């Protein structure tokens, strides 16, 4: 596998090897040992799988607060997403800034989003399935959001507000300036 840092260096793109043959392919999509060799030593405790029927489905931006904060390792089984991570760590040189990357079944890449970031995605194809590992259990009381189209974030989503398909809760999340300081650099 290869590991590459994005402009916010804590966010990594991981490309597992894909062994193709006449039957199809084989891939170690996660190996604790290989990740540890690459300096990524995270205990993942839960796998999440989401399916979005329509192109332009926006999920996020989401994070869980301590003591239930989560690292996330995201990949796409079918279709494609634009994945976005926003730095929420107060005191970070990249606080409030974001990175985005296309993650797709075709490229077989993954994105690692550590604790301290809000995470969101928009589907770029219909019938997109996302599978991601998280390092802490789901805690509804600690599950928080940030408004996906907060102008202060300046995220170039490929969908307009009118086109985006969102959950009811994600239409009304707080803006960055309204979030309490929960993560520190
Ligand atoms: C996140 C989560 C949700 N649920 C339930 C709650 C709810 O009834 C249903 C759908 O939840 P949501 O609307 O929060 O699903 P969704 O909007 O897909 O939430 C996800 O968005 C992406 C961007 C993330 O980063 C994830 O961590 C998660 O927050 O699933 C669980 O049972 N376990 C979980 O871990």
Automatic annotation (TrEMBL):
<comment type="subunit">
    <text>Homodimer.</text>
</comment>
<dbReference type="InterPro" id="IPR014710">
    <property type="entry name" value="RmlC-like_jellyroll"/>
</dbReference>
<comment type="function">
    <text>Catalyzes the epimerization of the C3' and C5'positions of dTDP-6-deoxy-D-xylo-4-hexulose, forming dTDP-6-deoxy-L-lyxo-4-hexulose.</text>
</comment>
<dbReference type="InterPro" id="IPR011051">
    <property type="entry name" value="RmlC_Cupin_sf"/>
</dbReference>
<comment type="pathway">
    <text>Carbohydrate biosynthesis; dTDP-L-rhamnose biosynthesis.</text>
</comment>
<comment type="similarity">
    <text>Belongs to the dTDP-4-dehydrorhamnose 3,5-epimerase family.</text>
</comment>
<keyword id="KW-0413">Isomerase</keyword>
<dbReference type="InterPro" id="IPR000888">
    <property type="entry name" value="RmlC-like"/>
</dbReference>
<dbReference type="Pfam" id="PF00908">
    <property type="entry name" value="dTDP_sugar_isom"/>
</dbReference>
<protein>
    <recommendedName>
        <fullName>dTDP-4-dehydrorhamnose 3,5-epimerase</fullName>
        <ecNumber>5.1.3.13</ecNumber>
    </recommendedName>
</protein>
<dbReference type="GO" id="GO:0008830">
    <property type="term" value="F:dTDP-4-dehydrorhamnose 3,5-epimerase activity"/>
</dbReference>
